[in-house]
Automatic annotation (TrEMBL), chain A:
SUPFAM superfamilies, per the entry: ISP domain
CDD domains from the UniProt entry: Rieske
One Pfam family of this chain: Rieske
Organism: Geomobilimonas luticola
Keywords of this entry: 2Fe-2S, Disulfide bond, Iron, Iron-sulfur, Metal-binding
Domain Rieske: 44-138
CC cofactor: [2Fe-2S] cluster
Protein name: Ubiquinol-cytochrome c reductase iron-sulfur subunit
Highest taxon, organism lineage: Bacteria
InterPro entries, per database record: Rieske_2Fe-2S, Rieske_2Fe-2S_sf, Rieske_Fe-S_prot, Rieske_Fe-S_prot_C, TAT_signal
UniProtKB/TrEMBL annotation, chain B:
Name of the protein in its database record: Cytochrome bc complex cytochrome b subunit
Residue span, Cytochrome b/b6 C-terminal region profile domain: 235-367
Lineage of producing organism: Bacteria, Pseudomonadati, Thermodesulfobacteriota, Desulfuromonadia, Geobacterales
Residue ranges occupied by any Cytochrome b/b6 N-terminal region profile domain in the UniProt entry: 7-219
UniProt keyword list: Electron transport, Heme, Iron, Membrane, Metal-binding, Respiratory chain, Transmembrane, Transmembrane helix, Transport
Lipid bilayer topology: Multi-pass membrane protein
Pfam families the record matches: Cytochrom_B_C, Cytochrome_B
Gene3D superfamilies: Cytochrome Bc1 Complex, Chain C (1.20.810.10)
Species this protein is from: Geomobilimonas luticola
The keyword Cytoplasm appears for this protein: no
Length: 139, 367
């Protein structure tokens, strides 16, 4: 074998070994750092209906994100994602006006999640909600 | 390729990278009879870097709170993907660091490299040894296991033998009368901030001294093995006609690091619990001392010495004297000769000392 192709071959072997070693370091490292998922992705959340009286809002965690349930003065129950569609702050419920205000850049949403004003580009995501036997079930 | 070259030229004409490489790497000449023991320092740098990286990774999940520390370590071991690997690398690495540090010191001893003008190199290395023992001792408490708790109780307690201020010193170290949550707070700060930064600074000083003095010539394979520095003026020990650091000795360094990795990963994958007695897996209980609490292997000689002497003060004093002697060795041993076989008194003391150290370690293990 001529010395040059031998040198190239050895270089390739070394490169391969180094790449393998790099992978063996990177893979565990990425797995170690990757966010952990708790298996039950699609869960429902329940709580007593008494926790959401007329005109009130209740914030809770749903699927890893912040959500809100409100009971309007007319008795209607609405569940929404509370994450503002602009830059991700959590919207606040304004009881008297019956609308949501995002304190970050003054985005406004109706009780149904529709954009009323400000920078948010999209309505708040709605989440299915039911009430039966004094229990509210979200999801 | 062409682009890489152009970037290199761009940098070179600005900061003289090529001249630097020529001076510090390819033109940095080492003695032709240099040997593998001169690569221990590179292995130590590698281990320290590994400890820093794995330590930072552990910090992501570790919680330094007496109520949560043990649980968080268990979580790392059992739940976090590859958490066991990171933790085992950190724990096994700490033991390896002490081991290689001892090898490094022994090679310096036997080759007489501590002799003038390298006293400052020796002293900085000696302080590093103490800092590494300190970082290991403080890290040992962090998992908050029975082993952590009681080993720290015993270790901090022995400081109480210092005359007059002893009892106060113990309380100060612990942040209370006994080991407890305040101890964890201070040991955590020492372990992850104070001592690592101090080690990094001292490593810098250690390498700076080496750079200024030049690498020593090993005493093997030469006729003339005496130290010819007269102490009258500064002299850089150059090695004209020697072998270049890059690529020749850099390859030796890499080889040594690779051999070290094989040993290290062998322990991590095949026998990681060699350094973990059963008490390491039980959460700390301040009301119940388990049987057979022993320190890590490298503290066993100290442990056994303390047990041997009738008074704790004597035990501490003897160890203090031995450490002081070791620290001041270059000022005590001022002979010109560097070859170990031509230094019979040194050789007898060194071998006697090593045998004594190992004997005390084994005795401590079985006692
Ligand atoms: C910046 C550097 C370092 C950081 C951030 C760090 C961080 C940590 C953390 C968070 C722990 C607790 C988790 C565990 O017990 O496994 C720990 C444990 C430990 N560390 Fe470090 N460390 C560093 C450097 C070192 C060094 C240089 C050594 C020794 C040479 C060392 C020796 C130890 C020991 C002996 C333990 C206990 C191991 C065990 O029982 O699992 N650490 N370290
Ligand atoms: S984040 Fe809500 S308005 Fe900007």
């Amino acid at each position: 074998m001529d010395a040059r192709s031998r040198r190239k071959f050895l270089g390739l072997c070394l490169g391969g070994l180094l790449a393998g070693a790099g992978g063996a370091v990177l893979y565990p490292l990425i797995r170690y750092l990757a966010p952990r998922r708790d298996g039950s992705a699609r869960r429902t959340v329940t709580f007593p209906a008494a926790e959401v009286p007329e005109g009130a809002a209740k914030f809770f965690e749903y699927n890893g994100k912040t959500a809100v349930v409100i009971r309007q003065k007319n008795g209607a129950l609405v569940a929404l994602s509370a994450v503002c569609t602009h830059l991700g702050c959590v919207v606040q419920w304004q009881k008297e006006k019956e609308e949501f205000l995002c304190p970050c850049h003054a985005g406004r949403f109706s009780a149904a999640g529709q954009v009323l004003g400000g920078p948010p580009p999209k309505p708040l995501e709605t989440i299915p909600v039911t009430a039966a036997n004094g229990t509210i079930t979200v999801g | 390729m062409n682009l890489a070259k152009r970037i290199y030229t761009w940098v070179d004409v600005r900061i003289g990278a090529g001249a630097l490489v020529e001076k510090e790497l390819t033109g940095y000449l080492l003695p032709t009879n240099i040997n593998v023991w001169y690569s221990m320092g590179s292995i130590l740098l590698f281990i320290f870097a590994m400890q820093v990286v794995t330590g930072m990774l552990l910090l992501i999940y570790y919680v330094p709170d007496a109520d949560k520390a043990f649980k968080s370590v268990t979580f790392i071991m059992n739940e976090v993907p590859f958490g066991w690997l990171i933790r085992m690398c950190h724990a096994v690495g700490s033991n390896m660091m002490v081991l290689i540090l001892l090898f490094h010191m022994l090679s310096v001893l036997f080759m007489g490299s501590y002799k003038s003008p390298r006293e400052m190199n020796w002293l900085s290395g000696f302080i590093l040894l103490n800092l590494v023992m300190g970082i290991s001792l403080t890290g040992y408490l962090l998992p908050w296991s029975q082993l952590s708790f009681w080993a720290t109780t015993v270790a901090t307690n022995s400081v109480g033998a210092v005359p007059v201020v002893g009892p106060y010193l113990v309380e100060f170290l612990r942040g209370g009368k006994l080991v407890g949550p305040p101890t964890l707070g201070r040991f955590f700060a020492l372990h992850v901030a104070v001592i690592p930064i101090t080690i990094a600074a001292l490593v810098g000083a250690h390498i700076f001294f080496l750079q200024r003095t030049g690498v020593s010539t090993p005493p093997f394979g030469l006729q003339e093995t005496t130290n010819r520095w007269l102490g009258d003026r500064y002299r850089y020990e150059s090695h004209p006609g020697g072998i270049p650091f890059f690529p020749h000795y850099a390859l030796q360094d890499l080889t040594s690091i690779a051999v070290y990795c094989a040993l290290f990963l062998g322990v991590v994958f095949f026998d990681p619990y060699i350094f973990f007695p059963a008490t390491a897996f039980v959460p700390a209980d301040p009301f119940q001392t388990p049987a057979h609490i022993k320190p890590e292997w490298y503290f066993l000689p100290n442990y056994q010495t303390l047990k041997l002497f009738p008074s704790e003060f004597l035990g501490i004093a003897v160890q203090g004297a031995a450490m002081t002697f070791l620290a001041l060795l270059p000022f005590i041993d001022r002979g010109q000769e560097k070859h170990p076989l031509k230094r019979p008194l040194f050789l007898a003391c060194a071998i006697g000392g090593i045998v004594l150290y190992i004997a005390l370690m084994i005795w401590g293990h079985y006692s």
